[in-house]
Amino acid sequence: MPTQSLPHATMQAVCYTQPGAAEVMHLESLPVPQPGRGEVLVRVLAAGVNRPDLMQRQGLYPPPPGANPRLGLEVAGEVIATGPALEGQHMPALGSRVCALANGGGYATYCLVPAGQCLPWPEGFDAIQAAALPETYFTVWSNLFMPTIMAPGTRVLIHGGASGIGTTAIQLVKAFGGHPFATAGSTEKCALCTSLGAKAINYKEEDFAERLHTLTQGRGVNLILDMIGGAYLDRNLKSLSPDGRLVIIALQGGAKAEKADLARIMTRRLTVTGSTLRARDATAKGRIARQLQEHVWPLLAEGQVRPLIHAVFPLSQVVAAHKALEEGQHCGKIILVPDHTQ
Ligand SMILES: NC(=O)c1ccc[n+]([C@@H]2O[C@H](COP(=O)([O-])OP(=O)(O)OC[C@H]3O[C@@H](n4cnc5c(N)ncnc54)[C@H](OP(=O)(O)O)[C@@H]3O)[C@@H](O)[C@H]2O)c1
Question: 10-133+282-337: which CATH topology?
Fold first, then answer.
């Protein structure tokens, strides 16, 4: 049973009844949920918008069984109630400020999150910066740095280098002594990738695999973070050096590959893998959180890596926020804040 009384009985939350265009979303007044075992209730001060949210809203990325079906995968805010701890579990203190990977429901003024998915709010960060961290840092860390932290000198190709995921990946690869290469679709986005420390390739103007071949003196890269899938599979395989690893985290270019030379997997001993963060269980997400706290949170505190914020919208303008991400002109993250903090 929760031990704290809540300040409000109701909250504002983004809802929709049928999947579809951004306009299906609207604000509703709903009861503030009570935290269950192992959960905390966060008063949301900011929430991140991610491409998986757009896909969920369109009906293309259903929430996994048991997850909160409402939108919003990351929040920053204040812990205002806690449920009973799981055995041996450390619960964030009441009143502490956290950023957290949510299992849905972040587009609201209150959000329940599993305690193990909370991380401290980095010192010197505001709510907007703190909310920009969980989804991209959990995704990039778990796919590029687990199970083994990359060795210095590792050459890494990051597709979509100017995205929320891409800007995080470039900085983390750089911070751990790797050599990031990034694709992006405009001169401005390439300039941003370069400013973060990557060698940028404008994939709309040149063949990324050919350019990468030149940039790496024919050696290729050791690791690829891919969000395109089918359309890039053959060129990704071609771009990997022996024992290289391709990690697929999205399929913007389709789930099927027309042609791909699979002989390269054998002759160069390549690994092709991938993951979706939301479907992973609380234990796995908790493990990622603890590694982030140990290895990455100090870098955030030192300013060695940072979230890039493109735009901030009030929760009541969630439709405009989704349209901005859909248009694709952004670099970095789009964030929602409750209307009263605007
Ligand atoms: N598997 C997981 O657990 C997981 C978790 C979070 C996110 N994701 C995925 O990761 C991707 C990035 O997420 P986000 O929230 O950061 O979204 P975002 O900011 O909207 O990023 C999408 C990016 O895709 C790039 N892109 C599109 N077509 C491209 C192509 N042909 N070649 C290279 N880049 C291309 C775009 O770059 P340009 O505008 O430069 O073309 C854009 O920067 C999304 O696909 C999302 O679904 C996966």
Answer: Quinone Oxidoreductase; Chain A, domain 1 (3.90.180)
